[in-house]
Amino acid sequence: MKALLLEEKANVFEMKVGDVEKPSPKPGEILVKIKATACNPVDYQTGIRGNPNWVYPHVLGLDSAGVVEEVGEKVTNIQVGDRVVYHSDLTKKGGYAEYGVTTAHTVSVIPEGVSFEEAAALPCAGYTAYQALFHKMRASRGETIFVHAGAGGVGGFAIQLAKNAGLTVLTTASSMNHAYVKSLGADYAIDYQKEDFVEKALEITNGRGVDLVLDTVGRENAEKSLRALAFNGQIAFIAGAPDVNDAISFARPLSFHQVALGSVHQSGNIREQRKLSEIGNHMLSLLQEGKLNPLVEKIIAMEEVPAALAELATRKGKGKIVAKIS
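The chain above was modelled as a monomer; its predicted structure follows.
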């Protein structure tokens, strides 16, 4: 089969299409003829670092959608011909290829009216946002949430999910993206380049602070965000933890949540792995109902993925880039 090949660690932006052996499903797995695979920051990040489980040439690409071509032994929930979307195990070969293998219990069936490209845009960013809001922080109607980097993938999905759930949403974005994040449902957009986001958050909440923070930026940003939290506030972080010990206080109790979506594949915890399918099912239904924007800004060919990953590495883009595979 044709695949985009990472010949060696750190060679991400020079990847070329070549031939590799078509995979076969093991018991509990399915073989998918891939139609679309999303580009994510984790692709270039892991590609640069490498992984001890990889055999080169490696194939990157975590979020794929396509048609089931073969099912392995003991698979009962998925059939040949089903249109599915899934989040891959990053220790194994991914979706920048004509075919991919994944575990049957982690996939979601794509409903009518949702394209392969729209479905592929969801998993890494969308599932992370969903897990942070509803599995970790238990976000509920009437609360106030501060979503950092609202123009990005995780931020863009988090804004929409929070708004659908009845929360008031604050977000950071450059001024050029304020109209965009407000179109997704943000109630307040703060220019992180010109304004102190803690001061603005306290001003907007009349000094009370926000109930929830989703930090997608980094440790320093997460640390600063603690000052914007209300009494009994919660923070979920995906790019670095704040100093938990220094922040613990009887007078101002806070809760901290680490979000690491992809590591569930190596956990051996089938119950938690099944949640990938459950999250996907819910988000696909929101897409089908027109209640969720898949954030697809650009659709490219597989050969264009290296350039797209280089674009993501600048951290200046918005939304999602998806590659058509076959």
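The mean pLDDT is 96.
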